[in-house]
Design brief:
elongated; 9 strands; 115 residues; mainly beta; four-stranded antiparallel β-sheet; Immunoglobulin-like
Length: 115
C-alpha cells in the first residue's frame, strides 16, 4: 500500500541526507621517510562542501600543520610529508570540513617515529 508522505516525511528524508554527510579519517603511518595519511568528505555531501586534509607535527606546545590541501566530497584523499632530518617527532592526520550542519573534524591515530 502506498501512503502519501506529509511534512514529517520530508523532514525525515532531509535529516537522513544530512546525517550521511560526514568527514572520514584514515590511519597515519610512516613508510621510509614519508609520513602518510588520508581523509575524505562523504560523496553524499552537497557538491559545494569544502574541507582540508593535513599532516601535523607536535611542537611540544601545539600541533603544527606541515602539509595540507583542500578536498571536496568523494574519493579518498591521501597526503604525504617527507620528514627526513626532523628527528623523533609525533605526527597525526586531520580532516576538516564545513558541512551543512556545521564545522566537523576528525583526528587520526598519533604516531611517534624517528625520521
Amino acid at each position: 500500500m502506498l501512503v502519501a508522505g506529509g511534512a514529517g516525511s520530508a523532514a525525515a528524508e532531509s535529516t537522513a541526507t544530512t546525517a550521511s554527510c560526514e568527514v572520514h579519517i584514515g590511519n597515519t603511518y610512516k613508510s621510509g621517510y614519508l609520513i602518510n595519511g588520508s581523509g575524505s568528505i562523504a560523496s553524499s555531501c552537497p557538491s559545494d562542501t569544502r574541507g582540508s586534509v593535513s599532516i601535523e607535527r607536535w611542537t611540544g606546545l601545539r600541533w603544527l600543520i606541515v602539509a595540507s590541501y583542500s578536498i571536496r566530497p568523494g574519493g579518498n584523499n591521501t597526503i604525504q610529508y617527507d620528514c627526513r632530518g626532523s628527528g623523533t617527532q609525533s605526527w597525526q592526520t586531520v580532516v576538516r570540513g564545513l558541512l551543512p550542519e556545521g564545522y566537523r573534524s576528525k583526528i587520526s591515530n598519533r604516531i611517534r617515529v624517528s625520521c
